[in-house]
Amino acid sequence: MTLLAAILILAFTGLVAVFTKPRGAAVTAFALVPAALAIWIGSKLMGLAPGEMMTTSHPWFAALGASLDFRLDGFSGLMALLVTGVGALIVVYASGYLKGHPEMGRFLMLLFGFMAAMLGVVVADNIILLFVFWELTGITSYLLIGFEHQKKEARQKALQALLITGTAGLALLAGLVLLGQAAGTWRISEMLATGEVVRDAPLYPAIVILVMLGAMAKSAQVPLHFWLPNAMAAPTPVSAFLHSATMVKAGVFLLALFSPVLSGTTLWHGTLTIAGAVTLLTGALLGLVQTDLKRILAYTTLAVLGVLVMLIGIGTDLALKSMVVFLLGHALYKAALFMVAGTVDHETGTRDVQILGGLRKAMPLTALAAMLAAFSKAGFPPFLGFIGKEYVYKTGTALDSFAPVLVTVALLGNMLLFALALKAGWHPFWSKPQHGLEPVPAHEGPITLWGPPLLLAVAGLVFGLMPGWVSHALVAPAATIITGVPVTTELALWHGLNVPLGLSALTVIGGILVYRSRRLIWRKQERVESVRGPLSVYENLMIQVVATAKAVTRSVQAGALRHYVFVVMASTALLVWWKFGRFGEWPVFGQFGDFDLAPALIGIVVAGSAVVAAVSNSRLNTLLALGALGLGNALLFLYFSAPDLAITQLLVEALTIVLLVLVLHRLPDIKPRASRLMRWRDIGVSVAMGAGVSLLILKATQVQVGEKISTTLSEWSYPLAHGRNVVNVILVDFRALDTFGEIIVLAIAALGVVALLKREPKTAEKEDKS
């Protein structure tokens, strides 16, 4: 099996789901597909040495040299394992969370479609192919966030996420194209060794800014962070998968992937470090005042994304190792906590932490999963989250410059994350409800609701107890790809009494103090959220966009046919004359051969008919003038030995004129409503348009860049198509698909006319009665 086959299998599974509309245990069975792919990817990954990659290429468009290129290395393999492994558990969880939902088939189709797109992002070895999958993740996430489309909030938040990430995606596309040109290759595996060439390129600053903009919007960095908390309008399985383990990490993945190529300058390191630090503090501080479980987790996800981007910005080998450990630990505990939040909501009907409390007796297994995940998130030993936090502190203390600032930011951020971990994973189960409120009735959910989060939470504990294996199998291969040099690192739970351990102790003390002040902090929620920030800028911008669109529509779509014709003709004439005026290359006059009286007279008749049609106030006279014009064209076809075209022109003209006369003969004469100024304006545009088209035709007759196609078609007509009538052969053989398409268009138009004219008897009777 190949990586392309794995992507196609996921997409096909989604199609099977939407057509079969599974229920009950059949939904859970769909989880076997990503689970099997996770096992296959893991087996391939274990067979690769650190720094080694498996590449495959599938021919696509050989004439353009385009192919579908994929690679699997330590970093992409780690991300692929998260996509498929966590994805399998999300499918199981969704089977319980959305049990009995009438649109389960549609949900699975979108979920597997996103899974396929996300897998494509992490294993694509061509930057344009990567961008295609990148945009597919945006489209499928938009549909998943707005899955409950009957709700206005879901539609609005889904559109907001799409606009923010999609608009920034256009910047990313420009950056990737410039990057490919600067590196001299479109293959990522080849591009990773071109760092010096890219950094010396004149467009390096533009490349960095564009790539960072696209990646940072996807990973919700300040000031483009607000879409992530608002995306909590999505069903919980979507939040657990997209907004913790996969999609929001796509931007982090992209920044880390191109780090060997784009790092090494102040622009790269300074921008990412500052953006990550600001996002860390913003997410943690805003999360403190939240009382909704999912929004708490959304803001903590925001903060952790800031940590990851800050570590990439620091850019040392130790920082990049820390980033890999932190990324892995976060994917495990955050997906688990999101699922726990959904289970609590599913079984109690609320996510408000002010109301929730004491659920451990009613929901013991869910409480266990929440506690294990929260401890990993808080950074307690022996969880993987503790190792990740220790490595962040080790990274900060090992810096030569700005170490105090970055350590302070990390310490403050981790204290707040510690408190938020307790608030999200500990408080609903082990604390008492707020004074004066009755306990919320609850009961344990089915295994599909508590099983997946418990597995992920236990994985965080097991990985923490097996740091050597995690280091050898997952962290070192990924860090080797990101740093571009062989990495050997030994993770451990105990490094002795040192500064990072002391900082961890301060984190615990500070986090507990913040957690104990939670009720005082919750009272500030309205005041904090009333502060106008980037969200208000987005909302005002959208209001202005809609107002501008309406104004432009009113001016362009004026409702008058003559206005539309004028705009089209004036624009075309302006472009034609601008072309000749700007670039010259006027046609050469006097090279038209001998004068021929017959076509000249026919041309005069055609021109005169056009003038009569334009100035006549009688509809009948206008129709007759148009008929004469068409007849003149038919005579020109006949004179130049095109009897087929002449007959076609005559038939069309006769039928058109007859039909129009039958329709219009009872209408009154045309009353000119245009002012004198408008009439002179129309005359000027008509003359400019006619003269411009004439110049184009004359120029076309004098330009010959290759062999005449008419000669070639005449030579092919009889030997290849066995037809002596060249026109017929062109229509039914050489341009058969084009002619077939025209027939289809006419058939569709005819069906549309029939549908408009058709009137059901019952409907007509009801309208008559009313």
Description of the molecule:
With 770 residues, this protein is mostly helical. Helix content is 74%, strand content 2%. The chain has 35 helices and two strands. Strands 1-2 form a two-stranded antiparallel sheet. The longest helix has 32 residues, at 152-183.
Gist of the model:
With 770 residues, the protein is mainly alpha-helical.
Task: For the structure shown, list the relevant keywords.
single chain, 770 residues, two-stranded antiparallel sheet, mainly alpha
Largest sheet: 2 strands, antiparallel
Q: In order across it, which strands form the biggest sheet?
A: 1-2
Based on DSSP secondary structure assignment, what is the total number of beta strands?
2
Low-confidence stretches: 763-768
Output the number of helix runs.
35
Helicity range: over 70%
SSE arrangement:
Elements: H1 3-20, H2 25-29, H3 32-46, E1 54-61, E2 66-72, H4 74-97, H5 104-123, H6 127-145, H7 152-183, H8 188-191, H9 195-199, H10 204-218, H11 227-230, H12 236-245, H13 248-257, H14 259-262, H15 266-288, H16 293-314, H17 317-348, H18 364-378, H19 384-397, H20 403-430, H21 447-465, H22 467-483, H23 499-516, H24 518-522, H25 525-529, H26 534-556, H27 561-583, H28 597-615, H29 619-639, H30 643-664, H31 676-702, H32 709-721, H33 726-734, H34 736-757, H35 761-769
Antiparallel strand pairs: 1-2
Helix pairs in contact: 1-5, 3-4, 4-5, 4-12, 4-17, 4-21, 4-22, 5-6, 6-7, 7-10, 10-13, 12-17, 13-16, 15-16, 15-20, 16-17, 16-20, 17-18, 17-19, 17-21, 17-22, 18-20, 18-21, 19-20, 19-21, 19-23, 20-23, 27-31, 28-29, 29-30, 32-33, 33-34
